[in-house]
Amino acid sequence: GLKKDAKIVVPLHFLDYTKEGGAEVWQDIYGATHFCHELADTLPQAKRYVDAYVKKFNRPPDSYSGYGYSGIMEVARGAELSKSTDSEAVANALRKNPVYDHYKGKQWWRACDDKSFQDLWIMKVRSPQQVKGEWGFFDIVGRVPANEELDRTCAEKGLA
């Protein structure tokens, strides 16, 4: 049916629901993600993170595992920069040093609203015959580089 007549796009792809449904269901469906373990094939920092995660948990990380990891790493970076555990001191240290790269390339904090900007990847689910091992469902077909111009400005948000 529908897959023969149109390309299907979902806002976000998640590893676990793709695995649960199977490639037969998700094949050729496009979606976005802020992290996919298959980035380890092209980004050295993603490879370090994915390898460590797989060693500990016997499965690749999903996108939200990456958020948790990066969040903890940012708190630690802020504490190290500020030489403090005071939350305001940590936050101020991160504002003064907004660029970071823990697991997937450059990210940064915008000063007016403390929003993190990061790349977004477009993925397509492989056919059942193309799936690589137990978890290799995705072909990364595009990247949308982080860009503040793609977001509302701080003035538009009433913050400037």
List the helices and strands and how they pair.
Blueprint (H helix, E strand, L loop, with lengths): L1 H4 L3 E4 L2 H7 L1 H4 L3 E4 L10 H14 L5 H20 L4 H10 L2 E2 L6 E3 L6 E2 L2 E6 L12 E7 L16
Parallel strand pairs: 1-2
Antiparallel strand pairs: 2-6, 3-4, 4-5, 6-7
Helix pairs in contact: 5-6
Could you characterize what this model shows?
37% of the residues lie in helices and 18% in strands. The protein has 160 residues and is of the alpha+beta class. The chain has one domain. Helix 5 crosses helix 6. The chain is globular and about 55 Å long.
Give a brief rundown of this model:
The protein is an alpha+beta fold and 160 residues long. 37% of the residues lie in helices and 18% in strands.
- Based on DSSP secondary structure assignment, what is the total number of beta strands? 7
Listing every helix as H and every strand as E from the N terminus to the C terminus, the arrangement reads HEHHEHHHEEEEE
- As residue ranges, the low-confidence spans are none
Proportion of helical residues: 25-40%
Number of helices: 6
Question: Mean pLDDT score, rounded?
Answer: 96
Radius of gyration: 18 Å
